[in-house]
Design brief:
598 residues; 22 helices; ABC transporter transmembrane region fold; binds adenosine-5'-triphosphate; 63% helix; six-stranded mixed sheet; four-stranded antiparallel sheet; alpha/beta; cell membrane; single chain; Rossmann fold
Length: 598
């Protein structure tokens, strides 16, 4: 889903409406009801004041009620006589009803908040799931991380203040309306006072909005540095680069501090200007009413009360808006990340791919990263249940080729086919769910060994049996038996609590557990000692003929039994054949074998 919004009051409303839907109107109606009840309740004080000066009797045509006379008229029309007791009872009833409405409104607000935050997070996760791999390479990980955590919260906070401002705007309008009914001149003066104070606040909002955008960008920078610090902690620690690296973090923190101080400065202006502004406007209005217009103080008392309250709400709105603006940077960064992800999404069909009957083929494939050609006219065949090996010097394009085979990237030219049908015609997600990928960097989650290998499968008898089978195949049995909590032992962040070789074996076990059709092993056994490597190698050998396998290896001893070996040199396949054939046809391959003294 693509979200766009215009940078104005209506644009923000549309943005929230897109996320929350029609419930936004129910919330508005509740807000109006609460403010109306509050206003009418307040108006009921007037007959009370007049009764105090007229021996307990409440006059039905009290001039202090102005245009709000209909309220007391309405009470009398119901057959209730007006006296202090009935007015007090009506007051009590009105404010109780207002309390009930406020309670419903606040609960509804909490519900909306969670609906909102859930919808935005779900959208982000959905877009992240659909994001193409090349798209992911373009997105900074700090940006994704920051958006999913702090920026979403900022959007939610912005919505909170937007609604508070809106709710208080309803209050303001109600009071202006009531003040207008009580005394029309007051309403005009409120409008003038409001417009004047808004001019000052508009300048503050613009400045705050700019800072908010900068703060969001800085947040991305900080998160990005932090992720890298945690990821590379061991290296930074062992080389004592940490102190130099932490300087970078401190710089970003300092930039943040400067920006936050500026926000604080504008906040201070907006908050401290509140009271004097109200008092000046109120005093000015009273002065104009009495000396210029010649109204008596009694006649304007109710209007003045509404007016004072309206002004209070005006200032509250300005403060709400200031807080809203402070968080608008979050709205912008969430929408831009969402939309960037959407633009770089993977378009896939829903045609399920068949199992390979004959072969997966790569035909005349070219691939470039930017301007740099990485693969040049590659032709390669992976016959069903056979093992192919990709060898070649570092940077020759082996992993890029594996990425093409797994459909992570698409060729610029040429095609990849399953039994003559282009791979892109099929649902690539369904295809990938049949791939087992063991990469150079072992993938380990901070969870139990069981969950790491089964990928959180139900601990049913059948699953447990399969778990122990793959544990045996990957020589992990004795390792697990020495662990304090056996297969329930947790592995720590990125498998920090276990060795590199153990991590690699757990990664292999996960892919074997998966019942994949194609196994891609990219330097899968490189972190293992020769003895463990030999055992796992033998176990992988046992799978020969049951999986279609791609093995990428620098250690040529591990691919001796591959059905077809492809030698890659600078993105081109320069020789192919069985191990023995390769020794005959490729001088380069022969040299590589001799160097490794196989
Ligand atoms: N995301 C990327 N953006 C730009 N260039 C890339 C990217 N990934 C890889 N490359 C470049 O593509 C070339 C081939 O990389 P690849 O990882 O496929 O090589 P390899 O043969 O697997 O190397 P190794 O044996 O060292 O793993 C390299 O020159 C590399 O710098």
């Amino acid at each position: 889903m693509l979200i766009e919004f215009k940078n104005n009051f209506r644009g923000y409303f549309t943005f929230y409406y897109k996320i929350i839907g029609n419930r936004i109107f129910a919330y508005l109606v509740l807000s109006i009801l609460v403010s109306l009840l509050d206003g009418i309740g307040l108006a009921m004080f007037m007959p009370l004041f007049s009764a105090m000066s007229k021996d307990d009797s409440v006059s039905a045509d009290d001039s202090t009620m102005g245009g709000l006379q209909f309220i007391t008229d309405g009470i009398q029309a119901l057959g209730i006589s007006l006296n202090i007791t009935t007015v007090l009872c009506v007051l009590g009833l009105l404010f109780t009803f207002k309390g009930v409405c406020k309670f419903i409104q606040l609960n509804f607000q909490v519900d909306l908040r969670y609906q909102f935050i859930r919808t935005v997070r779900t959208l982000l996760i959905e877009n992240l799931t659909k994001l193409s791999y090349p798209g992911f390479l373009k997105l900074e990980s700090g940006r994704v991380h920051n958006t999913l955590t702090s920026e979403v919260t900022k959007v939610f906070t912005s919505m909170n203040f937007y609604f508070l401002a809106l709710q208080n705007a309803v209050m303001l309008l109600t009071y202006i309306g009531l003040a207008f009914l009580a005394n029309a001149q007051f309403a005009i003066l409120v409008a003038i006072g409001g417009v004047l104070s808004n001019l000052l606040y508009k300048k503050i909002y613009t400045a705050t909005k700019q800072i908010s955008i900068k703060l969001s960008a800085n947040g991305v920078k900080f998160t990005s540095y932090m992720i890298q610090a945690i990821h590379n902690f061991k290296y930074l620690k062992s080389t004592n680069y940490f102190s130099r690296y932490s300087e970078k973090l401190k710089d970003v923190m300092h930039e943040n501090e400067v920006l936050n101080k500026r926000v604080g400065f504008y906040n201070a202006i907006s908050l401290s200007a509140k009271e004097p502004m109200i008092m000046i406007i109120v005093a000015g209005v009273i002065q104009i009413q009495i000396s210029v217009i010649g109204t008596s103080l009694g006649a304007i008392l109710l209007s003045l009360m509404f007016f004072y309250r309206a002004l209070n709400f005006l200032v509250i709105i300005q403060n709400n808006w200031q807080s809203f603006v402070q968080n608008t940077g979050g709205m912008m960064s969430v929408t831009s990340t969402l939309n960037d992800m959407y633009d770089m999404r993977e378009e896939i069909t829903d045609v399920p791919p068949p199992t390979i009957q004959r072969a997966l083929k790569i035909k005349d494939v070219d691939f470039s990263y930017g301007e740099t050609k990485i693969l040049d006219k590659i032709n390669l065949e992976m016959p069903r249940n056979q093992t192919i090996a990709l060898v070649g010097e570092s940077g020759s394009g082996k992993t890029t080729l594996a990425n093409l085979i797994s459909g992570l990237i698409s060729p610029d030219r040429g095609e990849i086919t399953i039994d003559q049908v282009p791979l892109n015609n099929y649902d690539l997600n369904a295809f990938r769910s049949r791939i087992g990928y063991i990469s150079q960097d072992a993938v380990v989650f901070n969870d139990s060994i069981y969950n790491n290998i089964t990928f959180w499968a139900e601990p049913s008898e059948e699953n447990k049996k399969r778990f122990w089978e793959v544990v045996e195949l990957t020589s992990l049995t004795s390792f697990i038996s020495t662990q304090p909590e056996k297969e329930q032992t947790r592995l720590g962040n990125n498998g920090i609590l276990i060795s590199g070789g153990q991590k690699q074996r757990i990664s292999i076990a996960r892919e074997l557990y998966k019942k994949a059709e194609i196994l891609i092993l990219d330097e899968a056994t490189s972190a293992l000692d020769s003895e463990t490597e030999k055992i796992i190698q033998e176990n992988i050998e046992k799978l020969h003929g049951t999986y279609t396998m791609v093995i990428i290896a620098h250690r040529l001893s591990t691919i001796k039994n591959a059905d077809i070996i492809y030698l890659l040199e600078k993105g081109k396949v320069t020789a192919s054949g069985s191990f023995d054939t390769m020794l005959e046809v490729s001088e380069r391959f022969k040299r590589m074998v001799n160097l490794q003294e196989i």
